[in-house]
Specification:
Blueprint (H helix, E strand, L loop, with lengths): L2 H15 L25 E5 L4 E7 H7 L5 H4 L7 E6 L2 E12 L6 E14 L6 E6 L10 E4 L2 H7 L7 E7 L6 E5 H6 L2 E4 L6 H15 L5 E5 L12 E4 L13 H8 L4 H20 L2 H6 L12 H13 L8 H15 L4 H4 L8 H9 L8 E5 L8 H18 L8 E6 L1 H4 L10 H12 L5 E7 L15 E4 L5 H10 L5 H4 L9 E6 L6 E5 L15 H5 L5 H14 L3
Parallel strand pairs: 10-15, 10-16, 11-13, 11-14, 12-13, 14-15
Antiparallel strand pairs: 1-2, 1-7, 2-5, 3-4, 3-7, 4-5, 5-6, 8-9, 8-18, 16-17, 17-18
Amino acid sequence: MSEMGMQGFAARDNLAEGRIDARSPRILPADAPISENALIPIGHVREIAGSSSAIALDLARLEQCSDDTDPSIALSGKVGSQIKIRVGNSWLLASVRTQRQDTSVDGGIVALIDFLGEGEEERLTGRIYGFRRGVTRFPVPGALVYPATSSDLRQIYASDGRTNISVGTVFPTRDIRAGIYVDALLGKHFALLGSTGTGKSTAAALILHRICEMAPSGHIVMIDPHGEYGSAFKTTGQLLDVSNLQMPYWLMNFEEHCEVFITTTGQERQLDSDILAKCLLAARSKNRLAEQIGKITVDSPIPYLLSDLLIILQNEMGRLDKGTNSIPYMRLKAKIDEIRSDPRYQFMFSGMLVGDTMVEFISRIFRMPANGKPISIIDVSGVPSEITTTVVAVLSRLVFDYAIWAREEETRPVLLVCEEAHRYVPNERNSDGSSVGRILSRIAKEGRKYGISLGLITQRPSDLAEGVLSQCGTIISMRLNNDRDQAFVKAAMPEGARGFVDTIPALRNRECIISGEGVSIPMRVSFDELEVMKRPASNDPSFYELWSKSGGEERAVERTVQRWRAQSR
């Protein structure tokens, strides 16, 4: 019989007699509600190397534990599970990252572990309390390894008193709630990652619903590129799309004007930009607000008339010498006329949007006051693809600029959530130099100073701009199927979460790994089931069911073509 097996029998004898050894884990009286497997070692420490160390596990003991009624003990020693090691009067908690067979060690298995934190032992009950991240004292080789029980995990994952939202159940337990600390989640940004079909949109809706329930007077702006979330927030949100967004074109700064009105590249683009800057400033200066303010810039959000801009362009062109090329002026005029007459752009370039509605627009978008609807869902699926990124850039920049200019007021934090974030903040390989990438990167780096929280949702984290994901203090990762995405997320997660990261490819739908500032320690979580009326419209269609039905196709095609031609839904 192995030495470890002999230790196991000794522990059983102690359990039967209710004895307590001060140097070994506390043995409770026989009638205490604790599993016998929790009191018997499953291995010992083999090597200590900072955050990552190696332990030897007894295969026979793991098989004994696998039948335990406590699900945490049943999984002890396996990849992704938690184990504990005594150091003095404290317990160290660690997660198992890898396993390999090794006949040279007693027990037959060598596993690498990552230390998560430590907690004190309550002398009367033997329970862990005061758990904290990090390690003060490391164990020495030979120290015994024990299963972490559900009771241990309940203490470890218990809230420390900070405001939190409950989003699911901690794996592998059945009843331990997974809480996320709201101030830490929002104060240092967060990212929700997951391949298509893993339940990412539903998870995002769940988190936002929990935040809205906790803070009905909050201020949340969500960019919805596919029109999925409107159905999920009918009662708790303001739904805005091309039919009612009414975003004034004059809110664009000069860079955003260039993205919309200028189509050339290289030297021609620079020439067009110089002309547009001069004429745009003149158009803004014609407003009475400009006279009241005094000195304004081309970026100042002062209303102006597109007709005034066209007249100024025409006048400037008329002053040219005969030898001067007038083509840049004609290009700009043609583009402005094209946009002004295109019905798809009326949500932004309508002649009705020339009034000074900046206060009303910001109040409506930022939910100030919230009036019981703290989130605004901005559906950009109906926005022409040519200016979608510009619209998102304007909305994002308004959040940032408002926060800067409101510093003398009582801080009103705003949460900006971007679905399909890799489209707006792409890495250098996919970047097109658009303004939206620059403003979102700036929010990621500086937003927390001004009370702006950024939530990024994407299925392709490796396509995000370098450094943006690393600015997210909390990472919520669902299953990722792409190796490059997995490696990218692994590099962004803290060292203590490496054991959890290795399980990302094996996560089930509606499961995730949460690590970072928003949780005490990394955890694997099964998300709660969300009520049907609160789910986004992101379910995949059933080809079999839909193709089994027939009838009405002709009228459906006719109605679709009518909407298509009218460019409306």
